[in-house]
Design a protein that fits this description.
Length: 459
């Protein structure tokens, strides 16, 4: 009689820490209650991450909502615009009053120097005054805020346009912004006529008519003027959207420094200040970038918190739904190895029932969980328990799963072990003990071909 050595049935995957072997009779009850339990477990697992999805600046959010509710063409008061630009520039609450006074002082001086009469002339002279008095002193590509102007007389297209918007509001002249792929400027509307104002240049009023502007603008800024006829490259934006570009530029600079949470905080205020598709697209982009950073750091719980909070706040957008699914998947992957098998299974089944993971991904998780635990049990020689566990997992997935095949292999391994014990006892002349070992094996696996062959040899 020869012995047979078999080691079939191991499924792929990392071995997770040992857990208690489940009571299989409990699984029916577990399946009936998994949805409720999943919710409880998720709640217990979730930690509080202050500011994971920051709140918008309350003043900017209120101003954006009120202006949107007032309808197209509504423009906030000068006082509100000043405060909005200061807050967008990062001015803290204790500094708002002195900064506000400084801006108001500049505007009052500009208005005092403005001659009564023709509004076109007054709008043009306002730009020249801001440059000649060195309020707008030196162009600097990254100087996007009013603080840059107040503290260093440095400016770029965004900050200069934002200040000019205030100047026009002070003079009672209608003004809005224009955004191009890499630039921003103003348009004033006087007596039905729209006039471009390139605020980075003292000759930028109605720039297409000024040779001085043409000679100096590109050299100073590196940008090209986009004339009125290039409509595909020009996007008119209302006053608050122009103010919001301060937030946008600051947010982008934070991302260059890989400070994605700081960038996101500004983007949230951007979306609140400019309700609608543009603001939503901007904040969703920043949410994705922050989530990507968290996933790379393995902070799946935080990523999940961010994704679900974003979906709650901004709606079930396709981008946010995909992000939430990816976050939930990563989160489950990160914690299931730390849970006893029944808890891990409940989490997976609950996530699938809630629509947080696909059915295919649910089945992959189940194969991983049951396969690893069955491998661990089989590794200590308990092939019947390993096979029973694999069958339990297979029942959740359906016919033809890898767990079903693994169970077959585990049973084969058990039969091979019985055969080897039988052969050893039989060859040693211990026939009664050999029979007892064989009959024990057949009680567990009635009709097994290998054991039935041994039984025939015994007779």
């Amino acid at each position: 009689m020869t012995t047979t050595s078999h080691a079939k049935g191991r499924t792929r995957g990392r071995t997770r820490p040992a857990s208690h072997h489940p009571d299989f009779r409990m699984f029916l009850a577990l399946l009936l209650s998994f949805t409720v339990l999943y919710g409880r477990l998720i709640a217990a697992e979730a930690q509080t991450y202050p500011g994971i999805l920051p709140e918008a600046d309350p003043f900017l959010a209120s101003l954006g909502a009120a202006t949107a509710a007032a309808g197209p063409g509504a423009v906030p008061s000068l006082e509100d615009l000043i405060e909005a630009e200061l807050r967008a520039s990062g001015v803290a609450a204790p500094d708002l009053a002195p900064r506000h006074a400084a801006v108001a002082g500049i505007l009052d001086s500009m208005a005092a120097a403005s001659r009564e009469g023709n509004l076109v002339t007054r709008a043009e002279e306002a730009l020249e005054w801001l440059h000649s008095k060195k309020i707008l002193g030196m162009y600097s590509e990254r100087a996007s805020t009013l603080v840059d102007i107040l503290d260093g007389r440095r400016f770029n297209c965004v900050s200069s346009a934002a200040l000019y918007l205030l100047a026009m509001r002070r003079l009672g002249i209608a003004c809005e912004g224009v955004q191009t792929p890499d630039h921003a400027f103003c348009v004033v509307r006087i007596e039905g006529k729209a006039i471009d104002v390139e605020t980075t240049n003292r000759y930028g009023f109605d720039p297409g008519t000024r040779r001085e502007f043409t000679d100096s603008f590109g050299k100073a800024t590196g940008y090209n003027y986009v004339p009125p006829g290039a409509y595909s490259k020009r996007v008119p934006i209302p006053p608050l959207a122009l103010v919001a570009l301060i937030l946008s530029n600051r947010s982008s600079m934070y991302e260059e420094l890989h400070r994605y949470q700081d960038s996101l905080a500004l983007a949230v205020s951007y979306a609140a200040l400019v309700p609608g598709p543009a603001g939503l697209a901007f904040v969703v982009g920043r949410i994705n970038n922050r989530a990507s950073e968290l996933s790379q750091e393995g902070k799946w719980a935080e990523m999940r918190e961010l994704a679900l909070a974003a979906r709650d706040r901004y709606g079930n957008l396709p981008e946010l739904s995909k992000l939430a699914a990816a976050a939930q998947d990563g989160y489950l992957s990160s914690i299931i190895d730390t849970k006893p098998l029944p808890e891990a299974v409940r989490l997976v089944l609950g996530a699938a029932a809630a629509g947080d993971i696909t059915k295919a991904r649910r089945n992959e998780f189940l194969v991983y969980l049951y396969g690893n635990e069955a491998n661990r049990i089989g590794g200590r020689g308990d092939w019947l328990a390993a096979a029973a566990l694999a069958e339990t997992g297979s029942a959740l997935i359906g016919p033809g799963s890898r767990l079903s095949q693994a169970a077959t292999n585990y049973y084969h391994n058990y039969a091979a072990g019985v055969h080897n014990r039988f052969a050893e006892l039989y060859n040693a002349g211990k026939r009664s003990q050999a029979r007892a070992a064989l009959e024990e094996g057949l009680r567990a696996l009635p009709g097994d071909p290998l054991l039935m062959e041994d039984l025939s040899a015994l007779k």
